[in-house]
Write the structure tokens for this entry.
Amino acid sequence: VVGVDLGGSHVYAAVIDAKGVILAQADADIDRARPPEQILRGDVAVTVRAAIVAAESRSGASPGSIAVKGVGMGLPGNIDRVRGICRFSPNFHWRDVAVAAPLQEELGQPVFLLNDVRSHTLGERHFGAGRGHQSFAMLAIGTGIGGGLVIGGRLIEGAHSAGGELGHITVDPLGPRCGCGNDGCVEAVASGPAIVRAAQASIAAGRGGALLAQAGGDPGAITPAQVASAAEAGDAEALAIFTRAGEAIGIAVAAVMTTVDPEVVLIGGGVGQAGELLLRPIREEAARRCRMVPAGATPVIPAALGEKAGLVGAAALALESLGLLDPVLV
Ligand SMILES: [Zn+2]
């Protein structure tokens, strides 16, 4: 199958086998201001074909000889999986856009669509840290905070495809405005941009010398990875920023633990790469806030798929939808 990861500025596509192994991939910049139909029939379809050609040339197979059975695509936003429609995507400013149908027509392949982090959750269930677990929660900490929930061996989609949107749990009622319109979602408080804003505030207050050095003297250029480097080098200010972000995520994790008591909680995404810097305060805060589950009884551990998560997750969606994997989708 081909897994497609469509983000706000870039599209990645990979040919992936039934064991979740990437055979070849391709990618391209996209201009999200273009009409959706042009993005899908143009950039996305071209990138899918390029990935198939790359897989054929890598394997030494002749053109047309790799038998792709379908295409899975993860997309940020509220996705109607059954109808293949993007109901709302703040990243693209799309509302009620048909995504699967035009792509399916263009490629001559079945196309399956799901929210990107819900796809990632499927990928972790089949090929990653969720393997063997009947229930787990997934939080992907990056530019936003995406989520996914598997309960009783099934991905929770909910009545309005919003089940598992863990990044939009309120953790600070008076907190900053979130992209979703609410105030104080964990995404608004602890995602990558929130960590960058906190670092910039430290620099502006004269406490961010180590942070400024990491950013090469330009506060506008600072990244979450640089804040993590400063924290790892022992900078107290950077450590405090990660601790506050982890505590906010821990409040959301406690809410999830109290609601569904999962076997394990997975933390992924680019900011999640910070590892123990983030995991330790998440575990401590979750234990403080969730008293109905014994402290430490629910492992909070890194997700396993790393930067391949989007592609492998989208492939898992296609493989499952084609009946090639045990069903996690209802
Ligand atoms: Zn929100």
Notes: DSSP finds ten helices and 13 strands in the chain. Residues 168, 178, 180, 182, 185, 187 surround zinc ion (CB under 6 Å). The longest helix spans residues 236-260.
